[in-house]
Specification:
Blueprint: E1 20-26, H1 34-45, E2 50-56, H2 62-67, E3 73-78, E4 92-93, H3 95-100, E5 105-108, E6 114-117, H4 120-130, E7 139-142, H5 146-158, E8 163-167, H6 170-183, E9 187-191, E10 203-206, E11 226-229, H7 238-245, E12 249-251, H8 253-269, H9 276-291
Parallel strand pairs: 1-2, 1-3, 4-6, 7-8, 7-10, 8-9, 10-11, 11-12
Antiparallel strand pairs: 3-5, 5-6
Length: 292
């Protein structure tokens, strides 16, 4: 079902008539697939006067960019390093975003207020659910960065038992245990040198940068469970390829990107449901073209 405002436009972010704008901000940003996904959604929804851009913006430049937002803006997608830096610039922040101190979505309301949310967390849950993963007894997380905290927030809904985080330092271990206490997840920590043990968990969430888990591909067990690798380019990662070769279930970074973008489109435009299939197909096509 598609819901629209009285003027036929999306009922979500912003209230101005005429063309509407949205964009993704971050640094670096040239690689972002968000414009491909959002534009595909606009085309499918018939939002011909909506545009979605991409802007290279770092933490120092973010306040100035916000000062330049006018009534044509409906919303922003945020990637690193802006997800925490944006919080002081907002009029309100959702409980979901506040729980991990990370905002990846800003909606500009009809009265000009800027409201922050985090669609990564429900996006992770939706991506897992789409592949039939709704509840596991335990899980492992590879890494301890910003994405790892969102993963813990998602696992609070998915994992019934403990989560073991494999990290490189005592400081990172303390940080992950702190997030666990805050999010209501029993977090145990282990040294990165023992990361091959993580692969025996029924659900493994890899949150590390490209190349970090490549050496683990040789340690995939005979009967693996589910791997959620948040990377999407290059794809598949060596770990994901080895996992699939053993007939394990794999959820990829594009799955996450599409599901979180679906929620962003719905919030910014007020049109729901957003066209998941069209957005995924657009993302897959863009990745194939980039790989040629």
């Amino acid at each position: 079902m598609t819901t629209r405002g009285a003027d036929g436009r999306g009922a979500g972010g912003g209230g101005a008539g005429g063309p509407r704008r949205a964009a993704v901000l971050g640094s670096p940003i040239a690689h972002s697939l968000s414009p491909v996904l959002h534009r595909a959604a606009y085309a499918e929804l018939g939002l011909t006067d909506w545009t979605y851009g991409r802007f290279e913006v770092d933490e120092a430049a973010l306040p100035g960019f916000f000062e330049g937002l006018d009534a044509s803006w409906a919303g922003l997608s945020l990637t690193m390093p802006l997800k925490r830096a944006v919080i002081p610039l907002l009029d309100a922040v959702s409980d979901t975003a506040r729980s991990v101190e990370a905002v990846n979505t800003v909606v500009v309301t009809g009265d000009g207020r800027r409201v922050g949310d985090n669609t990564d967390i429900p996006g992770m849950i939706a991506a897992l659910g789409e592949r039939g993963v709704e509840k596991v007894e335990e899980a492992a997380v590879l890494g301890a960065g910003a994405t790892a905290s969102s993963a813990l927030a998602a696992l609070a809904r998915v994992c019934a038992g403990p989560v073991t985080a494999y990290v490189r330092s005592a400081a990172r271990a303390d940080e992950m245990r702190g997030w666990g206490e805050r999010l209501g997840v029993e977090v145990r920590t282990a040294d990165w040198a023992d990361a091959p043990r993580a692969l025996t968990a029924p659900l493994v969430v890899a949150t590390t940068p490209a190349g970090t888990t490549d050496a683990l591909a040789a340690h995939v067990p005979e009967r693996p469970g589910t791997l959620f690798d948040v990377l999407y380019d290059p794809w598949p990662t060596p770990l994901a390829a080895a996992w699939s070769a053993r007939s394990g279930r794999v959820v990829g970074g594009l799955d996450l990107l599409v599901h979180q973008a679906v929620l962003q489109v719905e919030q910014m435009t007020g049109s729901a449901p957003a066209p998941l299939r069209a957005m995924r197909e657009a993302g897959e096509s863009a990745l194939r073209a980039a790989a040629r």
